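Note to self: the last two entries modelled the partners one at a time, which told us nothing about the interface. This time every component goes in together.
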Amino acid sequence: MILIFSNSGDPSTLDVMRWIDHLSDAKVVRINADEEYSVELTISDDDFSVRVDEDAFGLEDVTSVWLRKGGFWFKGLFPSVAAPEHPALARHLQHKLDLENRTLRDHFHDLLRRRSAVLGSANGSAPNKLVVLGRAREVGLRTPPYSVSNLRSHAQSLVASGCGYVTKAMSDGLYLFDTTESRTGYFTYTEALEPRVLEGVGERMAPSLFQRYVDKAFELRVFFLDDQFRAAAIFSQSDAQTRVDYRKYNSERPNRVVPFRLPPEIEAKLSLLARSLDLNTGSFDMIVDAHGEYYLLEVNPVGQFGPLSERCNMAIERMIAERLVAREQRV
Amino acid sequence: MDSTQLLRDRRDEYVFLFSDCVPVEGAAASAIYDLTRKHISTFPSAYFPFFALFRARRLGEIVDALSPEEHDDFVAFLDFLLANEYVAVVADAAAFPEISRAWDAPCAIHNAIVDVRGQHHDYRKIVAELSGLGCQHLQVRGYAGVFGLAELDELARLCRGSSIQTLEAILAHEPGRSDDDYVAVVGAHRLITGLTVHSAPQERRLAVDYGARGDAATLLTLEISMTVKPLESALDCGQIGKRQLLPPTTPTFNELRQFSGCLNRKLAIDERGEVRNCPAMRGSFGDHRAVSLAQVVADEAFRRVWAARNDEIEVCRDCPYRYACTGCRALLADPAVEDSKPLKCGYDPYTDTWADWQTRAGAAAALAHYQARVHLPIVRG
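The predicted structure of the combined assembly is written out below.
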């Protein structure tokens, strides 16, 4: 049996499940982090038994797991705390219950990791960007120089240097669809650090990440699964709208995205970096400058690979499905 | 950057045709398929050999070998390629491999057509067996009132929880139905991605907004199209014109290089309930009630026509649009010749001109041949 944790709206999950269905007779149980299920759960020593709606399974049934999306699964196992007359106590108890839930989840993942083939990151979120940059340099990958500071004067000195800097979130950028109130989407992008960005900012500002702007020849998205790499080059440089962040799509003239052959030494370093971050799948964002130098920007363990896979015919969905059914056939 | 500047400053570099822009050679006109921007441009085929030169020689070497009169044409062609961002000038293109030409899909059957005229089929069996084959798209065509709005509602219900992701319907107009009836059924099933009502009293379009308001409504709206034109039989299909060309994408382009764009992984149930590759084609694989669809699909004889790619069809093999055209293997310009071009195509690749296919010599006779073969008269609803 293959266990998939995801979100209900993730199109890639459906594509991979189609391939699993096409390639094997494996039973698949998909649990979405944003849906509620009737869950029965017992963990005893090194085993567990679970029923999610109609699907009942034990640890020994699970051959492979794909942690695709979402942080917390098995929502609603713990009651929510209601004590209107004691708000501070209620907040504290809620926090304690969240910790209970997290401990349970971590143990559940640990059991899965020890007994079945787990694809994906158990954290359900991206690793610390600043840590990634440090590790990248350790394995010999170039990264654009960066700094974090809460001083406006620091930011002003960067602007004054004339080198060109960008600023972006240290964690994941903002990405929100408000479907209940304003029906608006909110996003943050990587933005150029310009004097007007600092207008009206106090001397002590929120700690902000600044990174040297690299004049890119093109960007790279490098999907990896274990030691297999699929790279695509994105020619976003000629378009002012996408020069700093290619996610500001130009739908009239979308950027060219074409397959790219990574130099073996870059691939070897990325392999080392993935291992040091304990990731067996994800996507690296890189840039190549006019002199052919490679820079690592960040890694995304749960990124959307679907569009690149389709346009460059990389068959990533099939790769993932084959990885997930591999153990099934041996049983 | 324009070509004048390039010819002056970048003579030692190579013209790199982006790998998502694929040249396709035709007789009079050739094409570039822009797989990212889903667009096809054509140009005189005389320019086609330049693409081989771009790969082999530096820009300066190419230009120096041209005669003075060729030079101006080359500059114009280079400007055309630059204006469309089909090419970049690079020192070395070795790091940019071609897009893989492999094609596959996670299903034994990708799409199916069910025709209904005077009798119903076993829709439950059809949907269950198509789902077992991974079928993603289903089209139902009701020639008469037997298959109407109530039946569409029921079919959409049957498709829930199956592999079928989209259901498209063409139904005969039912005089007793109001606009609200049509909107209600389509609005109740997100699975229904298209409805055309034929033989209607007038040409109209009905909007379905799924209850969405404001900006969201513009994203969600679907239009039901009502047309006065009747849908007489399966012979009404197979029209080929500029409007029918598929916007090129990597998967469709690769599929059409290897397979028939219409028949590959398709299954049809004709109005008599017989399993066929296409309702208008000869060769029945049995009544759908009596045979298993999976067994039919496993039959080599059923899959043979899937490989009827345009590269192997007379005239089509010289057409620059051949990897964007589903073609037609049911209605041929010369019914006696197996690899004859489609009857209802008006393009002539040897002159690069479009004309009405009905004006072509022999077109009326070919159509009459097919009409005589149709199993008429058939019970009319």
